[in-house]
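TASK: fixed-backbone design
INPUT:
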C-alpha cells in the first residue's frame, strides 16, 4: 500500500484520493486529514471521536464519506476485515454528523437533506457543551419487557388463577 506524507503524518494514498475525489490532489484540508487518519487507523476512532464531532462539515464532507463507503463495498472481497472496518467508521461518522446515511434512500430529496443538514448544524452548535450526554432517543421501548424481569410474557403463578405455571 502506497503511503503519502502530509504535515508529518503518513496516510494511505488510496484513502486520500477517495476522500478528495481526485487522483492528483494538491492540498487536503484538516477535516479530510482527520477522516483519513481514522479511516486508515479505525482502532483510533474512539480517541478521535470528539475531534470528529466538533469538526465543521458540509455536503462535500458527506460525499467524501459516501465515496469511502462505496469503495469499501467494491473492495470488500480483497480484504474483508479491513474494508468492514473502513465501512463501519465511515458510516458511523456520517450518522453522527448528518443523522442518517445518504445511501439508505429514505425517499427524501436533496432539498430535504439540505434542510436537515442546516438544522443539524444549528442543533450541534447549540449543544456542544452537552454533547457527551446526548441521546439519540432511537429504539425507545423496543425489546424491553413490561414486567419486573419476567420477560417473554411468561405468567406469574398468580396470573393463571389456579397456582400453576
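OUTPUT:
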Amino acid at each position: 500500500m502506497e503511503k503519502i506524507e502530509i504535515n508529518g503524518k503518513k496516510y494511505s494514498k488510496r484513502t486520500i484520493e477517495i476522500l478528495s475525489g481526485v487522483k492528483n490532489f494538491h492540498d487536503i484540508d484538516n477535516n479530510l486529514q482527520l477522516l483519513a487518519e481514522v479511516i486508515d487507523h479505525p482502532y483510533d476512532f474512539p480517541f478521535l471521536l470528539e475531534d470528529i464531532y466538533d469538526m465543521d462539515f458540509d455536503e462535500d464532507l458527506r460525499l467524501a464519506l459516501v465515496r469511502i463507503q462505496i469503495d469499501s463495498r467494491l473492495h470488500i472481497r480483497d480484504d474483508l476485515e479491513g474494508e468492514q472496518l473502513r465501512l463501519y467508521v465511515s458510516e458511523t461518522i456520517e450518522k453522527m454528523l448528518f443523522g442518517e446515511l445518504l445511501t439508505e434512500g429514505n425517499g427524501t430529496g436533496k432539498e430535504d437533506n439540505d434542510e436537515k443538514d442546516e438544522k443539524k448544524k444549528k442543533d450541534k452548535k447549540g449543544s456542544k457543551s452537552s454533547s457527551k450526554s446526548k441521546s439519540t432517543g432511537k429504539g425507545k421501548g423496543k425489546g424491553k419487557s413490561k414486567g419486573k424481569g419476567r420477560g417473554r410474557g411468561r405468567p406469574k403463578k398468580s396470573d393463571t388463577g389456579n397456582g400453576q405455571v
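COMMENT: Strands lie at 3-6, 9-12.
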